[in-house]
Design a protein that fits this description.
The protein has 3 domains: 35 residues; 181 residues, D-Maltodextrin-Binding Protein, domain 2 (3-Layer(aba) Sandwich); 97 residues, D-Maltodextrin-Binding Protein, domain 2, CATH 3.40.190.10. It has 13 helices and 11 strands. The longest helix has 21 residues. The two termini are 34 Å apart. InterPro entries: SsuA/THI5.
């Protein structure tokens, strides 16, 4: 809210001079009121009046999951929609969500468990604006060193296992996979660790196992790590992993920007699904892995549509692990719907 400033009369100043000053001040305030309101609301998309582009501040991670985001930037899909995307690196959805609430980020990448929990607990009124990544065999692995004391899943009882965030999709899929193999997961000490640090931690023996995603699976393999079990096989096969979300306040204030972001991402997601080479070429730039490693990476699926029916499997996973009350969460309430005419 702007505060009106009263001009101060200075001694010796003529009435005509004062009148001119007051008029100029009033005109300046009027200009701010009519054209500068966007600067006063940190939660709204910022429009560059010179370029006509709407800026979106977005949190992302150096993971295979976000390859279509970089593809959309490189191929100008965001620019075609009048969007300028400023990215900053986050450790995971749990870190990005508070930044949505504070207005530091407009949209963040993150795993579905973190988004659903934030909305269920009332911490942030999350609105998902785009899907990002869905698991495929070999994309979410619990890894160990073959010369360690861990030779089978049951050997993890009493030991440390690294996950990137506690009680998120990374941990819940590991717990689900371990339980199906008869492991008492209450006897495992889950510790938080950023994905890029997991391969070296395994190699040093800091942890007995780590829940790893690409491209860090390929890095771990290069250090001699092996797969103990696939976390997204059996009951968790084809599990939706991550997406992009904003706050409901932001999408209500910026429905067109949200719809345009969704449209650009849908185009890029579909293209990435059909062109592995395009994904491989992007990975060294933003994940900092070698091109040779990029060629070995196992890639999941990039859904081009945001569908409640698919995300219900995440809700079920959370319910089965005591992270949600049974039959209470409505996934439809979390999905952004573009304004009519923008679909």
């Amino acid at each position: 809210m702007l505060t009106m400033v009263r001009p101060v009369v200075q001694a010796g100043r003529s009435g005509r001079s004062l009148t001119r000053s007051a008029l100029a001040l009033a005109a300046g305030i009027g200009l701010l009121l009519t054209s500068g309101c966007g600067l006063l609301s940190g939660s709204e998309g910022s429009e560059d009046t010179e370029s006509g582009m709407t800026t979106i501040n977005l949190g992302t991670m150096p993971a295979v999951d976000v390859a279509p985001l970089h593809l959309a930037k490189e191929k100008g899909y965001f620019a075609e929609e009048g969007l300028k995307i400023n990215t900053s690196t986050i450790a995971g959805g749990a870190q990005g969500i508070p930044k949505l609430a504070s207005g530091e980020l407009d949209i963040t990448f993150g795993n579905w468990v973190s988004f659903i929990r934030a909305k269920q607990e009332g911490k942030v009124d999350i609105k998902a604006v785009s899907d990002a990544y869905q698991a495929r065999k070999g994309t979410f692995l619990l890894m160990h060193m073959p010369d360690s004391a861990v030779q089978q899943p049951a050997d993890l009882e009493g030991k440390k296992v690294a996950v990137n965030t506690r009680a998120n999709l990374n941990e819940l899929t590991a717990v689900s996979a371990l339980k199906t193999r008869g492991v008492d997961t209450s006897k495992i000490e889950f510790v938080t660790m950023d994905f890029p640090d997991m391969p070296a931690a395994l190699d040093r023996g800091d942890v007995a196992a780590a829940s790893v995603i690409e491209p860090f699976i390929s890095r771990a393999n290069q250090l001699g790590a092996k797969t103990l079990l696939d976390q997204t096989a059996g009951p968790t096969a084809n599990m939706p992993i991550a997406g992009y979300a904003a706050t409901s306040e932001w999408t209500e204030q910026n429905p067109d920007a949200a719809a345009k972001f969704q449209k650009a991402m849908s185009k890029a997601q579909g293209e990435a699904n059909g062109d592995r080479n395009a994904v491989e070429e992007l990975l060294p730039d933003y994940t900092k892995i070698e091109p040779k490693t990029a060629s070995l990476v196992t890639i999941g699926t990039y859904p081009s549509t945001l569908e409640a029916s698919r995300l219900k499997s995440v809700v079920s996973l959370m319910e089965n692990n005591g992270e949600l009350p049974p039959n209470e969460f409505d996934i439809n309430s979390m999905l952004f719907q573009p304004p009519k005419g923008d679909e």
